[in-house]
Amino acid sequence: MSLTNSILCLFEITDPNLIVTGISKERCSTNQRIHVVHATLSYQLLKCPHCGHKSLIKNGTHMSHLRLGTLSGGRYEMHLKRQRYQCKDCSKTCGAKTKLVNRNETFTHNIKHQVIVLARDMLTSKEIAKLCGISPSSVQRILNANIHLAYRVKHLPENLCFDEFRSCNHWMSFNCCDAVSHRRIVTLKDRLSKDIIDYFEARFSVQERAQVQSVTIDMNAEYGSFIHRLFPNAATIIDRFHIIQLAGRALDNERTQTIRTIQDKHSRLYHILKSQWRLFHLDEIKVNDSKAVYLRGINEYMTQQNAIDLALDAFPKFRSVYQTYQGILSAIHQKDANAFQSLLTNYQPTSNQMDITINTFIKNGSALLNSCRYPFSNGPIEGLNRKIKALKRNCFGFRNIDNFFIRISLIHE
């Protein structure tokens, strides 16, 4: 393989009319070292592109400074001499063209591809610019010119997930994905109900929206108010994690209030409730009742079940909340909708923190029970939101929400 072909292969240049004449190193105005590839572009042009006559003559060359993709983190340029032609019939001129770069541009397709690949790795614009030897503003211009947000997905999936995330300037933005394939469906700039309704009604027909079978949400009441309007045949599912989380908060609130009633801050009961709070969130099946272990905070050897029983026997009100929490935990883990329904129906208020939680569950009765009847959860969309948060953290935040959404579309491809 010749030296010319080797250089062209390194930069993935396949234009047969381009010939490399040399390589040199120069310095730009900012004293940065530049690797320069000198080349010429010439071929036989038969007809004038303006008048169509076959009366073309060569008319000198034109020097173009093209930016190539980086090989070792430095700045690479191509000084390309393009052949110029003049028509003797219409006196107009034209030049040799190449697929290496678009017309009236200096960035080659190779460097644009490198910018997009690095942007998918959640790098900042400054880091991408440093690696490619261009400016941060050029990085953003390349992304804006080559990445276009889709108007809508081709097919609306049968199972959806709704959630929100914090985007720019403390705004909360809406996110939607497919519950099965985890593919992102849409990301909206805000989570207002009217904007979500307008998006789906404007882009999807009634027949398409009627094919949606389920929508998984968190405990946000706004989503539940318009889901049936958008998707008339869809079942609303409340995410199981948020159900357990809400019940766990009620348990912690009651535990905190119980701690405040203990006068002796050095007692065994105080340390059990204060330091061993994780034991009360464990499923009863996972609690160790046979092997004594050293419990820090209590500074004693005892079984986990013994520590739990000491606290429950001393505080009957806390025992009631704990038993209700365990019933919810068991019904969710076993996906037993009948047991969950029975727990809500037979619950007796005892003026504790769990009363508010149970009333919230009863208010969202059917959607709550659907969490036990359907296998879907908000796990896929929480994973997408986790990538978005990682992107924000890596890039130190975004001020322009349009640029932010372009980067989101890249990491979700």
What does this molecule look like?
Residues 47-90 form the Transposase IS204/IS1001/IS1096/IS1165 zinc-finger domain. The protein is of the alpha/beta class and 413 residues long. The protein has four domains: 3-106, no CATH class; 107-147; 159-239 and 377-410, Ribonuclease H-like superfamily/Ribonuclease H (Nucleotidyltransferase, domain 5); 240-373, no CATH class. It has helices at residues 3-10, 109-120, 125-132, 136-146, 193-203, 206-210, 221-230, 240-260, 268-275, 277-281, 304-314, 316-334, 337-346, 353-363, 365-373, 379-394, 401-411, and strands spanning 18-27, 33-41, 56-68, 75-87, 93-95, 159-166, 172-178, 184-188, 214-217, 235-238, 293-295, 300-302. Strand 7 (172-178) and strand 8 (184-188) form a beta hairpin. 25% of the residues are buried. The mean pLDDT is 89.
Query: Can you write the helix and strand succession as a string?
Result: HEEEEEHHHEEEHHEHEHHHEEHHHHHHH
Question: Overall pLDDT, averaged?
Answer: 89
Secondary-structure class: alpha/beta
In whole angstroms, how far apart are the ends?
37 Å
Radius of gyration: 33 Å
Proportion of strand residues: 15-25%
Helix proportion:
40-55%
Number of strands: 12
Question: How would you sum up the major sheet?
Answer: 5 strands, mixed
User: What is the total domain count?
Assistant: 4
Contiguous uncertain segments of 5+ residues: none
Report the principal-axis shape: elongated
- Helix count, per DSSP? 17
